[in-house]
Amino acid sequence: MSRTQTNSGLACRRAALRDQPAFLQPGEIRLLLFGGKGGVGKTTCATAAALHLARLFPDQDHLLASTDPAHSLEDCLAGTMPPPNLQVRELDAQENLRRFKAAHVGHLRQIAQRGTFLDDDDISRLLDLSLPGLDELMAFTELAALAESRSYACVIVDTAPTGHTLRLLELPDVLRKWLGALDAMLAKHRWMAKLYSGRHRPDDAERFLDEFAATVESLASLLTDPHRCCFVPVTLAEPLVTDETVRLVQALEGLGIPVREIVVNCACSSALGCSPSCQAPHQQAEEMRRIRAAFPGYRLWSVPFQAPEVRGVPQLTAFWDGVCGVESREFRAADGAPEPPDDADSQASGGWACAPSPWVEHPAGVPAMEACLLFFAGKGGVGKTTLASATALRLAQVYRERQVLLFSVDPAHSLSDCLGTTVGPSAVRLNDRLSAIEIDAAGKFADLKRQYAEDVEQFFDRLTGSAGGLDVAFDRDVVERIMDLSPPGIDEVMALAQVIQFLEAGEYDTFVCDTAPTGHLIRLLELPALVQRWLGVLFGLLLKYKRVLRVPRVSELLVTLSKQLKTLRALLVDSHKTSLHVVTIPTEMAFAETCDLLAVCRQAGVHVPTLFVNMVRPAGACPVCDVLTQQEAGICEKLGAIFKDAPPVVVYRSAPPRGLVRLTELGQALYRT
Q: Quick one: which of 109, 235, 446, 543 is 20 to 30 A from 630 by CA?
């Protein structure tokens, strides 16, 4: 073979690689994360990428893992076996925490004994209640350690939806504060050792702290190193998803986490094969232009819409075959496409992948007037925000004597995007009987910590005025950091407790909650009991050591929070006043997660009166979409079999229900009066 032929072949291979995303090519990336709004296809993209890399490098081991509490990797693989060089792990966060505590709780107890005024029983209770919630953080730390150790060529991660993934990526800062509190406890011990023996020799507890601090800094270095780490946002050509993806990318930039490429999943084009009567290409063309404008500095890749649902190794292996640069694909409606029909008979006769106006089968009864707390829950991306907003509008329309508050406790709020109006941490009036708020959970806890810091400062300022001394300086540092040992998740519980504050004030009568996706909602339902136990321990400490630790204003705030949590816990299991409405979509992966959610709700005694099956395709003339229509009909039948309390409410795809006018129309279709 001539040198010219060799160079020509090399050039062809390089050209072929340029037509593929960099995250699918040979490189030094050790940690590859896929993230985005729920329902965009993160699990599919991560699993397909792991299979691609394992096939590309058969002599190297790879790890595919999930940090989402509601794991779906097994559902995605659908019983098929990955190649032997790809290990799949759905992390057991509780097991990670158990191992961490078994190995290090002795060190933590020793540190607390040396550096606080607490006795052994107090320390044990505080450690037991402070560590829950660190489970996910420890699991993620283990993944990063595996990536660093080169046990695997690459660790590919399917992350939780946006809000909780961003909190996970803030892990180094969280752990630095935690370590700072522990280090403050050892400062007095180190000073005393030097004072009486002339030198200080680190022991096992201090070595543990140093090693853990080194692990945290290694994690921070890995997450911000563009040569070793890559975060791939996955999005859809839909307005609400684009809005959240913009915020995600901005947040990742702020954290210094490398993002170079963005995947636009389920892209429809004129070459897809849909008939001219299918609306999908119509709807995506304009949004694709908006996505191009929103991400000018990133390489955008589109993956074509695929039917049926992508599950199992054969389909996942072929997932990236159609990937191409967004600029290379035509996104326009097929020639000769007619205007949508505007009457229900035309919709029912077929020919449309999307109904032009709300179309619902088996509408639900309007929730009873005495119902005061309604949760909308389900897998990410199923339309919880949309249905919660439409329900709130309908309730305000039906019960004219009641005030309704629509609120969100999802860290990745999207009420503003859905309603088409700005909603923030203060209630915004939408009409005479409806208001909306996106509760700032982190801000609530920050306010508590700020108040605590002010109380501690005033107490020690008075103390040093009379006593003074080094012991006071060390004790002050420890006391100031106690809030950093509070159980993770307390901020979300404080946000939920604000509902009780509103309820007791009598300003609102009915509350409609847009929740976080399934895994974190389940955790949120469990947290009030945990936080109330933590408050009980904290109250005991404040009373027992009232001469050492006086924080009167914070004590008052915590007493109020404890009362609110007691009311909330009683309200959650009152079927007359509280209900949880499950939202799902007709896919196999959503079906599996819905079964899990219903089981948890029944075990917890939470009343579930309604199951909404959202985004169902009407029967139509499009041969591509009809494949999915048949599949969806089978899943709807299975959902009806597991939810026997009432027929599932089937909500067909329609023009995007964004803004008060369209949401009001949807609310009228969802509920019969």
A: 235
Name the phi and psi angles at 156, rounded to 5.
-105, 130
Of 288, 312, 328, which closes a domain?
Answer: 328
The partner residues of 649 in beta bridges, in order of sequence, read 612
Residue 367 maps to a domain: yes
First to last CA, the chain: 80
Shared domain check, 364 and 289: no
Q: Which of 423, 582, 557, 576 is nearest to 494 (CA)?
A: 557
Residues 6+ apart with CB under 8 A from 294: 242, 245, 246
Tokens for 133, please give them. 């919630």
Whether residue 52 is found in the same domain as residue 179: yes
State the Cα–Cα distance between residues 495 and 412, nearest whole angstrom: 14
pLDDT at 494: 73
- Sign for the CA dihedral angle at 569, 573, 577, 581 comes to positive
Query: Which DSSP state fits 428?
Result: E
Residue 516 has φ and ψ, to the nearest 5°, of -70, 160
- pLDDT confidence tier of residue 70, bands split at 50, 70 and 90: low
- Residues pairing with 650 in the sheet: 361, 613
- State both tokens at 259: 């993002």
Q: Which of 656, 650, 665 is nearest to 617 (CA)?
A: 650
**Residue 591 sits in which domain range?**
360-412+574-672
**Strands (E) located in 38-94:** 62-66, 86-90
Residue 315 and residue 405 share a domain: no
For the segment 622-643, the average pLDDT, to the nearest whole number, is 84
Degrees, nearest 5: CA angle 135-140-142: 95
pLDDT band at 455 (very low <50, low <70, confident <90, very high): confident
Residue pLDDT, tens place only, 166-217: 777 877 777 777 777 677 666 665 665 565 555 656 677 778 888 878 888 8
- Helix 660-670 vs helix 384-398: angle between axes, to the nearest 10 degrees? 80
Per the omega criterion (within 30 degrees of 0), is the bond before 21 cis? no
Q: In whole angstroms, what is the distance from residue 445 CA to residue 484 CA?
A: 11
Q: What angle do CA 106, 107, 110 make, to 5 degrees?
A: 85
**How far, CA to CA in Å, does 569 sit from each of 444, 563, 578?**
20, 10, 11
Non-local CB neighbours of 514 within 8 Å, separated by 6+ positions: 376, 384, 385, 388, 389, 406, 407, 408, 409, 410, 414, 415
Cα–Cα distance, 196 to 200 (Å, whole number)? 10
- Among all residues, which ones are annotated catalytic? 68
Q: Show the tokens assigned to 461.
A: 């300022």
Residue range 663-672, pLDDT digits in tens:
999 999 999 8
Residues 150 and 217 in one domain: yes
The amino acid at 344: A
> pLDDT tens digit string along 270-328?
545 554 445 555 567 778 889 999 999 899 999 988 877 899 999 999 999 989 988 75
Q: How far apart are CA 421 and CA 428, in angstroms?
A: 9
Number of structural domains, the chain?
Answer: 2
Whether 489 contacts 524, CB under 8 Å:
yes
Within a domain: residue 324?
A: yes
Return the number of other C-beta atoms located less than 10 Å from residue 210's C-beta. 13
Q: Are residues 369 and 324 in the same domain?
A: no
Residues 657, 521: Cα–Cα separation, whole Å: 24
Give the Cα-Cα-Cα angle 310, 313, 314 (nearest 5 degrees): 80
Q: What pairs with residue 304 in β-bridges?
A: 267
Q: How far apart are the C-alpha atoms of 135 and 138, rounded to whole Å?
A: 5
Other C-beta atoms closer than 10 Å to the C-beta of 431 total 12
Question: Is 445 a member of any domain?
Answer: no
436 is a domain residue: no
Statement to judge: residues 385 and 274 lie in one domain: no
295 and 378 part of one domain? no
